[in-house]
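Budget justification note: compute hours in this period were largely spent on complex prediction jobs such as the one shown. Inputs:
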Amino acid sequence: QQQVKQSPQSLIVQKGGISIINCAYENTAFDYFPWYQQFPGKGPALLIAIRPDVSEKKEGRFTISFNKSAKQFSLHIMDSQPGDSATYFCAASLGTGRRALTFGSGTRLQVQP
Amino acid sequence: GAVVSQHPSRVICKSGTSVKIECRSLDFQATTMFWYRQFPKQSLMLMATSNEGSKATYEQGVEKDKFLINHASLTLSTLTVTSAHPEDSSFYICSARAYLFLRDSSSQETQYFGPGTRLLVL
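Corresponding output:
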């Protein structure tokens, strides 16, 4: 059972555009939702995270929107740059981050110059 | 953010040999570390949770006798792939639980990942 569903699988965006990646979760007990960025051959790097008591969180060009009733959350990358080209994973966890992460399937983002 | 290292970064071994992968938290102590496995172009799958001073907790379907985990100190966890076979070839990534201090002065426990270890079994 896939507990965190991520879409799209791949995304092509022009430089300066907005990249949007969506995730939906099933377990209502999840209470911590991070996003990770991964470059080929490297480990995932934490980008931004949100807890369900907040509907939106912004850090620089990255924004998480969270819809608790719909059990959905999304990552918005504003002013996308070629350097943002990577694979992005959403994840969810129990115990406000203390427990292991359940990852989405990943989105390969390509930002064209 | 907190730094987690892994060693080696890549290893090639013959079938039947054992390989040890080290995961270190460099600037913080981690009572809990996690081991994940990632196949090409796929997501990360949790293998086991490693707690300092106690036995690891393995996920369903992960053979504990094949993937030996030792968390002997607050900064080091090791994963040993015993009697490796070609199907064990994968990207192994560890993470360590640490506090992330936020702008509002609150803190949030999160996970920082190591750079991964590419294992190729011939």
